[in-house]
Specification:
Layout lengths: L7 E5 L4 H12 L3 E6 L2 H15 L3 E5 L5 H13 L6 E4 L15 H29 L3 E5 L12 H20 L6 E7 L6 H5 L4 H7 L8 H12 L9 E4 L17
Parallel strand pairs: 1-2, 1-4, 2-3, 4-5, 5-6, 6-7
């Protein structure tokens, strides 16, 4: 029997990158899936593929986590039909821009705060009461090394990931005495669409972020998520930082050809 057989995992931001990789890995471990993202043209074929390949149930909804009404209404429908997640992967998040704070774009700021902080809060608030009532569940928040160490130009993105870390710790404390586990998974440099989004579609600049070293892949992060959610019920991995071998902090990266 696969370790997550009979469990239901809800993944936000599931249409690409770490979210998609988590969906694939958890399906491989036997979990049924609920996939949320904005790009339904990617979600529908992904759900169909995973349902067939992994012999699991996979449903999807177009949900922008910034849309409070959509999050709560879609969550209500899930709960009403008995689909309370056993595993909630709060993955939806992004960086937008890398300006110095005195030159920052207010639209970029709103986009990051509304997605990375408020979106995570909306999803958690909408689903956590049902998890508590049922008496089981595991919340995994995708943070970042940027939530441990700030870097030049990171400012507001750093602030949102520090917030994710604080929310994870605070949620864990609020759930003391319940069986609900809370984990924060905080990667360093992962090659996904992250940098393309951050640099507003500038693919050349995005590629330069990953030049000269081997970054993490989305599958690497999904491996760690799978490890965390398959620990015995009495084990809670509260915070886990993972980095590529060539990265030792938010500021320390060795590229080939460098001393």
């Amino acid at each position: 029997m696969r370790p997550l057989e009979g469990r239901l995992a809800l993944v936000t931001g599931a249409s690409a990158g770490i979210g998609e990789a988590c969906a694939r890995r958890l399906a491989g471990e036997g979990a049924d899936l609920v996939l949320w993202a904005r790009r339904e043209e990617r979600l529908a074929p992904l759900a169909e593929e995973l349902a067939a390949a992994a012999a699991v149930r996979a449903t999807w909804s177009r949900v922008d986590v910034r849309d409070r009404e959509a999050v709560f209404e879609t969550s209500r429908r899930l709960v009403d039909r008995g689909d309370v997640p056993d595993i909630l992967i709060n993955n939806a998040g992004l960086a937008s821009g890398m300006s110095l704070i005195q030159e920052g774009d207010l639209e970029d700021w709103d986009r990051m705060i509304d997605t990375n902080v408020k979106g995570l809060l909306f999803v958690t608030r909408a689903l956590l009461p049902a998890m508590i009532e049922r008496g089981r569940g595991h919340i995994v928040n995708l943070g970042s090394i940027a939530g441990h160490q700030v870097y030049r130009g990171g400012n507001v993105y750093n602030a949102t990931k520090f917030a994710v870390r604080a929310i994870s710790e605070g949620t864990g404390l609020d759930l003391l005495g319940t069986p609900i586990r809370v984990s924060s998974i905080d990667p360093g440099l992962v090659e996904t669409e992250f940098s393309i989004v951050r640099f507003h579609g500038d693919a050349k600049r995005a590629r330069s972020v990953y030049r000269g070293y081997t970054p993490l892949t989305a599958a690497d992060v999904a491996d760690v998520v799978a490890f965390v959610v398959t620990r015995p019920p009495h084990v809670n991995v509260a915070d886990l930082v993972l980095l590529p071998t060539d990265q030792r902090s938010a500021h320390s990266l060795h590229r080939s050809g460098e001393p």
